[in-house]
Amino acid sequence: MSSLTTLGIIDIIYWPFGMLMKGIYSLVGNYGIAIIIFGIIVKLLLLPLAFSNEKTRLRNMRIQPKMREIQQRYKGDTRNPKYQEEMIDKELEVRMQMAQDVTSMVLALRRKVNIKVRQPLQCIMIPVVDEEQRAHIEAVKALIMSEVNVKDIKFVDGAAGVLVKKVKCDFKKMGPKFGKQMKAVAAAVAEMSQEAIAELEKNGSYTLQLDGTDVVVEATDVEIFSEDIPGWLVANEGKLTVALDVTVTEELRREGVARELVNRIQNIRKSSGLEITDKIKITLSKNQQTDDAVNEYKDYICNQVLGTSLTLTDEVENGTELNFDDFSLYVSVVKE
Question: Least enclosed by CB within 10 Å: which of 44, 208, 248, 283?
Fold first, then answer.
């Protein structure tokens, strides 16, 4: 083996053939006969490849007449699809981008407080800056709700006072613009009303009055952010603001437990090698944190996992342990 490591690639390829040739010669004692036998052995080894190539050649020969017929039939056909700018639905692109932005922001807020997507939440609140934004979000409302698992999306007027917004100056951008006025400008920006901030977001600029002089503040030169309100988390991206109700009521908690159990049981089905159409019997250990959810969503759980029965019992024999954040329980999944 150590001698092989010193050989080049070509040597490694030829080495077994050389050994084969030497072996044949040692048996027959004649190089001429040995070469003939060697050639026969090589041909036999390559025979499967030769058969495969011949089958491919014959198959290509059979389909060539059909290919020529198709080419002749569609000769000069100009119906091949081509990029057409006028066929692009610009409104659809805007709506889908809006759905993507809202979904991304809500999922980020969920991660911030470690709430899984399987845990349903009650509401998203969006302060709209204009009717166009409202219409775009309304068109993809159902899609967003499904993706982030919330019950409702509510729209509020940007100046309704439900969310408190603040404006922070970017001194690197605004300093060279306003020079000695910068301190006064920053103070005025910090005191902007909710109506003024809404106008800044909508129009991209807002005019302040400083010592009788007009000072124009550009939206690109400031950071607009919303303060979190009790029970809600808020995120901003440009003109888009999203507030997520992160209060998990008892009703929502029970639904979240049911969804989590469905996920865990589906994983057990998969790891057990069950077929997708196999029906199962489920036995679950009793636990005060899950019993009410199991009883309320028993039919839902069974429908999702193809369960014919779901039984709560004090002890599950040979069950699989399911670990949750602050408790665990056991489940048995048996093919019916």
Answer: 44
Residues of the chain with pLDDT under 70: 1-14, 76-83, 158-162, 228
How many C-beta neighbours within 10 Å does residue 149 have? 20
- Which amino acid is located at 117 in the chain? V
pLDDT of residue 28: 80
In this structure, are strands 150-157 and 121-128 parallel, antiparallel, or unpaired?
A: parallel
> CB-hemisphere CA count at 13 Å for 192?
32
> Can you read off the two tokens belonging to residue 226?
């919303």
In 3D, which of 222, 219, 188 has the Cα closest to residue 201?
219
Q: What are the φ/ψ torsions at residue 332 (nearest 5 degrees)?
A: -120, 130
Q: Give me the long-range contacts of 17-24 (CB less than 8 A, separation at least 24).
A: 17/42
What secondary structure letter does DSSP report for 308?
A: E
The answer to whether 125 and 107 are in contact (CB under 8 A) is: no
Q: What is the residue type of 99?
A: A
Alpha helices in the chain (DSSP H): 9-28, 31-73, 90-112, 131-139, 141-148, 171-178, 182-190, 194-203, 250-271, 291-296, 298-305
Find out whether 298 and 255 touch, Cβ atoms under 8 Å: no
- Residue owning tokens 């409104």: 91
pTM of the model: 0.62
The helix, strand and coil proportions of the chain, stated in percent and rounded to the nearest 5, come to 55, 20, 25
Distance separating alpha carbons of residues 161 and 127, to the nearest angstrom: 10
**Half-sphere exposure of 12 toward its Cβ, with a 13 Å CA cutoff?**
9
